[in-house]
Amino acid sequence: MLKPARIFWMLATLCLAGSLLWAAAQWSERNALAQLRTAGQHRLDVYTGSLRNAVERYTWLPFVLSSQRDLADLLRAPQDTVQLERVNRYLKAVNNAAQASAIYVLNAEGLALASSNWDTPQSYIGNNYAFRPYFQQARAGAAGRFYGVGFTTQQPGYFLSYPIREGERVIGVVVAKVSLEALERDWRLTGERMLVADRYGVAFLATDPAWKWHTLGPLPAATLNEIKQSHQYGRNTFARLELIKQQTIDKSTLRASLKSGAQQADMLVQTANLPDLDWQIVLLTDLATVQQGINRVLVGTGLGLLALLAWFLFWRQRRRRIRDNIRASAALKQAHDQLEQKVAERTDDLLGANVQLQREISERIRTELDLRAAQNELVQAGKMAVLGQMAAGVTHELNQPLTAMRALADNAKLLLERGKTSAVAENLVFISQLTERMGKITGQLRSFARKSDNRSEAVLVKQSISNALLLLEQRLRQQAVLLNISQSDEQLRVKCNAVRLEQVLINLLRNALDAVQGKADACITLLVWAEAGRVKISVADNGAGIAPEQLASVFDPFFTTKPASEGLGLGLAISLSIVRDFGGNLLASNRPDGGACFELELLAVQEQDA
Q1: How far is Cα 94 from Cα 92, in angstroms, rounded to an integer?
Q2: Backbone φ, ψ for residue 175 (5° rounding)
Q3: How far apart, in whole angstroms, are the C-alpha atoms of residue 68 and residue 448?
Q4: Strand 214-215 vs strand 239-240: parallel, antiparallel, or unpaired?
Q5: 220 near 239, Cβ under 8 Å?
Q6: For residues 474 and 199, what is the distance between their CA atoms, to the nearest angstrom?
Q7: Within 13 A of 63's CA, how many CA atoms are on the CB side?
Q8: Rounded CA gap, 503 and 384, in Å?
Q9: Cβ neighbours, 10 Å, residue 95
Q10: Which of 107-111, 220-224, 386-390, 503-507 has the lowest mean pLDDT?
Q11: In what order do the strands lie in the sheet with 144-149?
Q12: Between 161 and which of 134, 270, 586, 610 could a Cys-Cys bridge form, CB atoms 3.0 to 4.6 Å apart?
């Protein structure tokens, strides 16, 4: 019969084991959910960017077409068959070039007069679309936006509209229809489970076709009537996506069970709102992996507890055996042998651990080399992105000397026919000077685009600043920016790589140009000075500055306050990485009198070392 004390200790042990298992399960679940939420948020950011790009790439089309004179002439004389054929063919050519679904022109009453699909059975011509919100928005004088199922083609698409004006009066509307089915197919190929819903919660894009035209919640009668009046989706009834047992985690994340027939699956539901489009992207992640992770942790913890219990029982048995045989020489010899065996085992374990440690060190070195190579590729990609964004300005910069050279050459031909050789010589000198200037620009572009290594050298700061300003010269002139440069010693050199230092300076100067864009008194100040064995370079502007809550995040990868089409948010992150590789630092701050200031700090190179 068991003693009460033994029963108590057994119950206490069981309670302790149960508590440990419960704590391990809770920890595993929290950790797995946090990882899923972080990964899901990153994926939502990517999908939000791709959706915006798919929509915004066509926003210019109706605006540009609204200024075409042929469209206004057709609206003034809709019976002119020659003008109608000209506009139809023009719209078809533009639609083929832009890769849109269709482009058509409506008169002030919403009647379609011309269309890019005029020669197909699904032509829009003759149909009245006055009930469509995009027409009503453009008729009121604003740009129209609307997603719905085509009233004529029964094909869904995103409609972009813009008014056609005659003076201050709106005489018609031009509409471009864009299909998002290609984007939906791309998402489906990734294997994601996601959907895009409108402001009412109706899913119009979904990786699972069964979710399409379902709602995230009940629709009021007024909403259903509004959808019916606009013929938005070609239907008047919508099934509801069965998300039951909802548990809110934060304002954009909840945990729920998705019911599909007789089956249920636990899901992590994450939502990203697009206020400008009045849409929301919903990402559903299966939580089966979370439960699998919990099960593994429970099994591992249970096995650990069993091992601990086995060890405890073994320890008790061994203690009893030693106590019973402590006086016998055979027991002493047996204990000695056991001790020697344990030493040998531990020696083997130590040797094995040492071999494993060496293997891990080698793997870490290889990983570090791979990381360094990836970082170099990212730096090169950043340079290519900068060159791409400066392409228009450099092209304009080269076009001016070319035009001048052509004029000088034609002039020289006339002068040569008239025998004015001295004037011809002057023209040739001018042509030579223009050729030298073009050579400097193209040479700097080749030098900047070259894939540089990470070797440090003594770099003349003044030369790097001149090279960077040469590539930005056109933009400085276009924005009429006052550039103040002050350098205490023009022979200052830093320990860095020349090409990478130029890339950092270009990134900082471009950010400053973006910050002062549109200001009448735009000014950028560039200061260079030496201090305590280091060279400091500050780039300051008189723009709006950096918001205090964003100041700590400006160097984070993919952080940007610019639109998605103007950058990826990698410029400052790459610049900070380059500077730190050469033992320097890069700091951001706001100036007391307004504007932002970035301070670059690098190791100085003494004149005798240079």
Answers
A1: 5
A2: -125, 135
A3: 41
A4: parallel
A5: no
A6: 44
A7: 8
A8: 10
A9: 20
A10: 386-390
A11: 112-115, 102-107, 169-178, 156-166, 144-149
A12: 134
